[in-house]
Amino acid sequence: MSQLRLLLLCGMVLFLLGHGPCRGGSLRVLSPQRGELVAGGNLDVRVVLPRDRATSDLEFLVDGAPPASIVPLAATPPVHVFRLGEIPDGWHRLEVGLARVGGAREHRAREDRGRGHRGHRGRGRGRGRGGRRSVAFEMTTLEAPERCENLNAQECLLPFPSSRFLVGDPHSATGYRVDLPADSMPDLVVGSLIGFLTGARSRLDPAPYNRNDGFSPTVQILMNFPGGVDLVRSDVARLDPATGNFDMRSLERDHPTVLLDAETGERILHFVENDDRASGERVTTVLRPGLSLLPGRRYIVAVRDLVHADGSPVAAEPVFAALRDRRPSSIEAVEARRRDMKAMLRTLHRHHIKTRDLILAFDFVTQSDEALTGPMLAMRDRAFDILDSQSPGEGIRVAFAIPVTPAESCAPGLLWRIVLGVYPVPNFLARDPNGSPLVPADPVGDPDQLGFLALDATGAPIQTGSYDAQFGFAVPCDALLEGPTRPLLFGHGLFGNGAFSVGSLVQDLAPYIDDLRARGLVPADVRLDYAIAGTQWSGLSSLDIKPLPSDIDFSDLSPADLGALLDFSSSFVGQLFVDFDKIGALPDRLRQGQLATLVLARHLELGSFNALAAFQAPAGTAIPEGQGVLQSGEVRYFGASLGGIMGLMFTALYPQLAAANVDVPAINFGFLVQRAKPFKSFQAVLEVIDPDPMVQLIGLGLLHELWVKGDPAGYAHHITGNTLAPLRGTSPKDVLMTVARYDQQVSTLGAQIAAATLGLRNLPGSVLTNLPGVPDVSGSMRSGHIVYDTGAYQPDTATEVFIPPAVNRPAGQDDNRCDPHALRFTIPASLAQLLRFLEPGGAIENHCNGVCDASGPLELPGGLDTACDPLAP
Fold it and tell me: What H or E segment, with its residue span, contains residue 42?
């Protein structure tokens, strides 16, 4: 028996080695394996040759024909390696045969029918009858598999964002660190104006991005599908051209795209759009979350059941198909992804998503709360500690106290004086954050100088000194007639200046409200009796930019155009466009400007300005001479446009606010810019830098990964306490979000995404209802979102050209006369709603006649009888 066992064992060994007892073993193909994914170009074939046969007996056929070349590479008998040349990408069938003794060919094995080509799931066979062996394999050419994502062949970084570009980091809050390869970054850096004009380009430096511990919570999720995607035929949640909005379809179980919280299994509201600027094979498909994602979480994107314009199904690209179907691959980079992809697919299966149907899936991790908000909180706390240790008014200097109404002539509603001056703000910006010593960068005194946050080894901000921020105050006569008045902090619009605009704001607004009151369009007790203060949003204020004409012809620059470009390129914003490697200076300066606003608000809360003579009552008024005219304690906020956007960040960071109205606001600059009228000039510059829309989208997506730290998107979940707890040292806030329908400058949809992130409800009177993520409510509320129609634009009329389209473009025609963005604020019902909301304990009430649809003077900007006509001569 033992001899029989030995003979059987020897026979098995000889069989496995390819040696049979009679004919020296059988022919076998070791690679490619059945269904294997191999790198494009040449195919290396490993065969086991029977010991009684020579390599000259071998015959190779690819899809029934001899390959262009056959080169022997190595031999360790019985294993022989051959390289078959010039095989195109795609599925193929390899046949390896042995010639019959005497030269006749052995008969061909049966074809392997059907299995291995439905979805190319790799069921081909590596064996055949007699002396022939057959195997199905797939060949794909990858750009640079060792450094690219590889799931989308069109671009190295697609799909974006992906955990392919994360590495473990036990010292980060998420446990990860971004790891973008230098050779994979887009060529978007021109370096100088000369480089811009001559076409010099270099790759973005990945170093700033690689310091992040994840991706932005408002990341642009970018994908590409060869042959394109018909969103209508695919029945995905998308923007409806008629409404400009999407629906809740993305949460249904059969929706083609899924955005999944990997921790909870929750499906995240979203919509899908194709880049309207692109065509052909390089169309980027963008999945946009309907609200900001949570910080420090892992999310999975899964895609299935998409179709092309002709109705045919969109197929998975080779790398994903091989990993999904557990097919082998000889491509090292593909095999390196296998374990993580297997775990991700297992998570999807656990949440009832059939992985066999997927055409793409990938995951990513969002940046941590610590990374997004930590430096700004540290800057705020340091500044407040300094203020709390000082005497009232210390360091504040008045430059001008401009009389408007003599004290003896004061009456309710009139403006007493405008006060301009400066106040010290701790500075955390340095010209070179790695320099020694650190040289401060003053965003006000030297606004063209770039500056970056100085950070220590732990990532904590280092104070580099202090600088003088500008302030402006508009003090009403009410402060002299009735005693100290409540301060209201004002946030200015894009490239504006809060210090110099508060005076004109009050001078225009106060008599207008008086007129509305006289006409019965607002309640008789509604008055503008606030002392309004403002400063600059450094980074996006009038100090930070020089004009750039929107009609520059870059193909034929005139001397005037060249002069404008030179002037623009020397400004803070212009330097960033010339060298996107310095884009980190933008969120850093935005945070420094945010700190200036926080410090000003703290002065209002402490009553610091009352220590200055310009804020004390003169003799002969109803209140004692020398008494401060400003109330201390509660702080209220109103900001419009950029002031609405940055005001959301301010609201998250300030410890306590009595109320905050953010007008025509939004979050996520990465989403907003391509839809914004003011961005048209910058878009023209971007198209000169790189005309490829796919590269532009990838570039904007990357830039937003740094910008988000100075964007309310990183802070918004903490504002109301509805989704996440308030930030350290703060309390939940009451927020009124007022929005303009058909806004040409700040997307109405961007405001809706902000409202969904804050957990706001859609208020009575809103002209838009049934909004995804912002449910309708009835009755008065302490917080809420409301959309007003100004009546200027109507679908299916000649004014439709002014309505922003349901794509990633601004409106087809600019309107600087009737744009709802600026006019919405002057609607009488809206002003009444705002002023009631700002009152102590004030709730949000609807002052329209039902829906705020511009149906009459109460609901029309300016209280006019008819809507503004953008087509009027």
Answer: strand 41-48
